[in-house]
Amino acid sequence: MGIRPSKTQGQRKSSVETPKVVITSSDRAQLELKLQRDRLMAAIKRYEVVAQEERSKASDFLRSGNRRKALYCLKRERIQRSQVNSVNDMLDNVQRLLDTVEFNQIEVEVFNALKGGKDELSKLNSMLNVDDVAQLMDDVEETVEEARRINDILAQPLDGYVGDDDALLAELLPQVSTEIPGAETAVEEVTVPTHALPNPIEPEGRIIDGGLGKVGLSA
């Protein structure tokens, strides 16, 4: 019992189908000319092989003393050589026609490409207004010029400033002292001690005559 393909498989196959290739009259002409060229090249090879065989036979007959057959083979060789020349001329004509057809096809493709590019350019020009583009370019130029002037001003050294740096900073100190309480302490508010300082405590051991001696503490 066979397994029937599902509908999804059939839809998948139909969706994977390759598009049909359109064969134009130019393609048919190129194909016919190429086939004719191949047939002529094969005929030239056959004529050359036969001519070489006839010449070999003529050499053999001449060695054996049969001049009549040797001349007959040489005449057949000459006929084959003339056929080769005629077919070569035909081959040149076919190749020339093939080149012409291919060149004409290239010209058509180039013309179609140029036409498509012209159509796209026309659509783009219809979408863009010339006045809007000119205004946009003017705005961009003004913005760039303004940015250039600002950069030039910031890059200039402060040679024109004359003044005291301490005085300039003093203008900022009141604002800083109000914003940060206790940031500045007056010198007059510091209290200096006036009472006697306590005697220093002597250490338990001190050096006596170059040695370390212990001194007893009073009770």
UniProtKB/TrEMBL annotation:
Keywords: Endosome, Membrane, Protein transport, Transport. One of its GO terms (biological process) is late endosome to vacuole transport via multivesicular body sorting pathway. It comes from Trypanosoma cruzi (strain CL Brener). The keyword Transport applies. This is Charged multivesicular body protein 6. Residues 1-21 are annotated as: Disordered. It is found in: Endosome membrane. One of its GO terms (cellular component) is multivesicular body. Belongs to the SNF7 family.
